[in-house]
Amino acid sequence: MKTRLLLLLPLALLLWGCPTDKDKDPEPEQGCHLQEITYEARFGLEPPVFTQRVVYSYNTQGQLSSVSADSAGIPWQKFTMSYDGKGRVVQVNGNRETYLNEYNEQNQRVRQIRSYRGQNGVLKERDYYSFIYNSRNELEEAHYLYVENGKATLYGAWRYTYSNGDPTTIQYFSYDPQREVNITLRYDDKKRHPQEQAYTFFQPLQPPSAHNLLGYNTSEPYDDMPKYNATYTYTSQGYPATMIKSDFDTGMIENFRYTYSCH
After folding, report:
1. How many helices (H) and strands (E) does the chain have?
2. Mean pLDDT throughout 112-130?
3. In Å, what is the CA distance from 200 to each residue of 3, 15, 91, 141, 215?
4. Does residue 96 come out as left (phi exceeding 0), alpha (psi in the -120 to 50 range) or beta?
5. Predicted pLDDT of residue 2
């Protein structure tokens, strides 16, 4: 079960990965803030089986301050972001869980710890990601460890291979059970915009890249592993407009639509 969950995109984590250092060029004259993502999941032409709306808010400095999600108008989850003096996200606080980011001297995030709030209100560490970078400051490996009774166990790892600043291949290794899955990613030649969502929630299949992600697909021989592809479209300003994800096993189609405020 954990193997399948590690490859899927949780709805609560509808945030892009962070840009690479080589993307720190001057901002384009017109910038946009992500305001909303609408999501629906359906099987073929059937009515949606699940819908969700995710709303993004910003503080007076233009930093992402909160993310709220509801389903059919019923509040589901809300996260608020805390920043340090360098403008880095150090903590993401949710109704039921908290994410804590740790950084090294090179300003790279090296660990993201997730803790859950029990019925007594006390936070308890549940799992975490750790990150390794290459000499070009590109994410080289990400490890997922599950914490139980104070002991951390490695459940999954992602290894990234780059071309022109873009991770074009991801090797996913599952350790319980032992599996290996290859994921291929496609990009256009347009420079990716830096995102306000940098360093919030890590998503293994949306790593930092120099150019816009057009899509990715997985295919592997295991019956209990998901086989799907995803495709993106972009606005005229170069921001993601839609994402469609198709699961070949179940026939489920997931649609994401992005709305922005541009200035």
Report:
1. 1, 16
2. 89
3. 23, 7, 8, 18, 22
4. alpha
5. 41
Inform me whether the pLDDT recorded for 1 exceeds 70: no
Residue 52 in tokens: 């969700």
Residue with tokens 């994921």: 183
Query: Long-range contacts for 6-11 (Cβ within 8 Å, ≥24 apart)?
Result: 6/144, 6/155, 6/156, 6/172, 6/174, 6/204, 7/172, 7/181, 7/204, 7/205, 7/218, 7/225, 7/226, 8/226, 9/203, 9/205, 9/206, 9/245, 11/39, 11/52, 11/54, 11/69
Phi, psi of 37 (to 5 degrees): -125, 130
Global pTM reads 0.82
Q: What is the pLDDT of residue 34?
A: 93
CA–CA separation, 127 and 144 (whole Å): 7
DSSP conformation class of 28: P
2-34+79-235, which class in CATH? mainly beta
Q: Where are the alpha helices (DSSP H) in the chain?
A: 2-7
φ, ψ for residue 12, nearest 5 deg = -70, -15
- pLDDT tens by residue, 197-224: 555 788 888 888 999 999 988 866 555 5
Q: How many CA atoms lie within 13 A of 191 on its CB side?
A: 11
Q: Which residue has the tokens 């009515």?
A: 47
Question: Which amino acid belongs to residue 112?
Answer: Q
Nearest of 114, 67, 110, 63 to residue 87 by alpha carbon: 63
Asked whether the predicted pLDDT for residue 131 surpasses 70, the reply is: yes
Pairwise CA distance, residues 206 & 243, whole Å: 12
